[in-house]
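Anyone up for a design puzzle?
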């Protein structure tokens, strides 16, 4: 074999021997790896119990009413309003008298019930006068009386938005005699249902 080839083979063997690493020798004793410990199951805690969602308690809400009254409901409303007493006024006055205050206070519970059941319903507070005096004067006086009654009702908790004030003056008398007793009946504030 040519010496060059032989020399190359020898260098290759030396090179391979030099690249090979031997396991390192340790001077200290290496402890053996710890023996695997059997896993001890941890004390199992039960999963948190899901508390049942509280049941929605039935709320005693009345069923929703339609916006408009039925004919029967309107008839019942008119009957209830017809039983209300009128607030009476002194001659040529628009201030609430003590007896009118008592009457209107008694009417409040009925009116509140009606308006609570029918929030779209409006009530008319009418102001009326006796036959004495001009039509124009009595319309103005009737308006003052209706507004006085409205203010009293609003002060007792009736929603003003559901009240309409109208003055009829002397045009709608409930009594047609020409004496003081009859005239007193016509000087009034009267509550009716708006159509």
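Challenge accepted. My sequence:
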């Amino acid at each position: 074999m040519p010496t060059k080839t032989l020399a190359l083979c020898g260098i290759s063997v030396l090179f391979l021997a030099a690249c090979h690493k031997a396991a390192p020798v340790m001077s200290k004793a290496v402890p053996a790896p710890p023996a695997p410990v059997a896993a001890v199951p941890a004390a199992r805690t039960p999963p948190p119990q899901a508390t049942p969602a509280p049941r929605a308690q039935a709320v005693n809400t009345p069923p929703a009413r339609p916006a408009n009254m039925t004919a029967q409901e309107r008839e019942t409303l008119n009957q209830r309003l017809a039983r209300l007493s009128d607030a009476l006024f002194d001659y040529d006055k628009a201030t609430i008298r003590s007896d009118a205050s008592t009457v209107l206070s008694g009417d409040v519970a009925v009116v509140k019930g009606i308006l609570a059941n029918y929030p779209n319903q409006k009530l008319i507070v009418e102001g009326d006068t006796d036959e004495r005096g001009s039509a124009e004067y009595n319309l103005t006086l009737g308006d003052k009386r209706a507004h006085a009654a409205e203010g009293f009702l609003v002060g007792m908790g009736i929603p003003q938005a559901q009240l309409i004030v109208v003055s009829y003056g002397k045009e709608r008398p409930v009594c047609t005699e020409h004496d003081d007793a009859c005239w007193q009946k016509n000087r009034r504030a009267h509550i009716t249902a708006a159509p």
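A detail worth pointing out: The mean pLDDT is 79.
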